[in-house]
Please model this.
Amino acid sequence: MTRIDIAAELTALGLRRGDIVLLHSSLSSLGHVEGGADALIDAFLDVLGPEGTLVVPTFGALGIVTEHLRARAAAIESCHPRARVAAVGKDAAEICADHWKAETAHGAGTPYTRIAARGGYVCLLGVDQDRNTTLHTVEALLRLPYLKTTSETTFETPEGTVARSWKYFPGPHRDFIGLDRVLRESGKLRIGRIGSAVVRLIRSRDLIDISLEVGRRDPAFVLCDNPNCTDCVLQRAALRQDRFSREHFTPVAAAGLAGRYVPEIVENVRAAGVTGIELDMLEGKPVQALNPDKLAGAIGDFREAGCPVASLRFSAVPNRIESVLEIAAAAAVPRLVLPLSHLAERFLATAVETGITLSFFNIGMAAEAAAELLLDLRKRGLPARFTFNAANFARAGEKPFLHSFRTKVRRFVDQLDVEDCLFDGRPTPLARGNAEVKELISILRCTGFSGPLVLGTGNRPVADLRETVARFDELLQAM
Ligand SMILES: [Zn+2]
Model:
């Protein structure tokens, strides 16, 4: 390939005098180029003319084309320790000006958006969308919740030494490759060939607008879906946490669904985008079987890891409420969840002075019987709080939403156990059984219910925490 061959191909792709091009390239992909990187740069400058501008990113792993362009006497480089570009041509100075002053490294007030605003192009020459820095512009413009503020950097500027950080900076891994198909199908992406290299050319404005549209529909659009990519698992968790933070209710994970040991539980709860834990099991044992000191230690570990224990849940009615309250007090947990029984009254009377909240869940009980016990508590001036376990009502042969919830126990509910099963008791994925889970979540959501929605250990036979929270999230998004 010669400078003239390359210029002819660029013209054939539609580039004209006066155009602005942000170029990402791999010189070696073209095959042999007579004159090397300089010939490639000159070919672009021949086509763009003195009225045009050629821009290359000069941050990260620099290619030979980048090095040669930036070394030219006419080159201007933007001042930015994390996202700078070099440019040659008429608009170079304006495109590069004050890059470091922008709020973000790639968004408004940066060379990337200025190129779009001037009708410029993005050209990928022998490289794929993963090299397309303008897609970071899209992430920054969307202010995606997984993006982070950079640490503060001290650097030299034309206005002296400056220390600052940038908001909405991209994370360690992302997957831009999948966007290529969307861009191709939009009809805005021109694809050609120069030597052996595939060349892609698109107006930066089109690239940004099309990708913004995709990103608004799916904020995870540039995250990979490899479950073993820790970066993207945590970035997806940040997106989910952001969605959950806009709900009134609090999503909580049952420890027994999240894992056996504290570090494992913490890691899985974090990856799920949930922060609260209902501690029902630890190391394969129900909490009532644990040594109180060990339990208090574990609860301290959860708190330190940023996953506070919201409640302790007992799988069986204890013999002595006093010992259960002692455990909760020692561990500074404000809430206990216990099976509803005729002992509830005594338990509540004992708990009143401790300030610890008790909520009772139905197990092996029809709604009428549960409602009767709860009403009785209320009549005696005791705080009757009910943890609605839809799966257990289905096991009792009732329609949990249409009957149990609506007609009997609704006014007492301060927690929902998000578990599903068939009438015969077999656990199912959420909203695939007879527990009317979707209806219950929907109605609680519509009434501004502010209590916990607990992704319970009862899901374990059909799904782990990751799958359960994904299903839960899917149900919320489909409502
Ligand atoms: Zn990834």
Observations:
- The first helix runs from residue 3 to 13.
- Residues 173, 175, 224, 226, 229, 231-232 surround zinc ion (CB under 6 Å).
